[in-house]
Amino acid sequence: MKLGDLYNLLFGNYSPIQKGLVFVAFLALITLYINNPEKGSNALQSTGNTFTGVILLIFAGTLLGAIIERVIPQNLIVSLLGEGSGLKGILIATALGSFIPGGPYVVYPILASLYSEGMGLAPIISFIFAWSSVALGRVPFELAFFENQIVLRRILLGIPLPIIAGILAELTT
Length: 173
Hints:
By secondary structure, this protein is mainly α. It is 82% helix and 0% strand. The chain has 2 domains: 3-56, no CATH class; 62-171, no CATH class. The longest helix has 35 residues, at 37-71.
């Protein structure tokens, strides 16, 4: 295998920003290791532990995304959440994003699958904002630490954000 082939295998689908992130991460690790080999080794070991802890979750998220691609008819995705879905698509995506549990390793592969099947930009933006700001799946954890009033206010303040973001995304496309 040639060096160019290896580069394409590792980085072929990465954007310049993604390539830059990988470069900066490796440069930081090398710099840390040169300056303090023990800390560099600890950082690498910690990375390995985290990676092995989330790899199964990443697999599950990408598997769910692939299943969704094959189960939900493309015309349904396009009609409900496609580029021309307008406010209806934004509201549906906001509702879905508000209720979907899981971390980015679950949500992003699902969204990538829906995008490849025709989900529009504005609904994707609304979904991500709702998943981040409304996040009803976090309510039980929040109630364990905060008063009801704080949790309710966070939810109520979070609801308009995905709708506004989706409308702005719609206007800029």
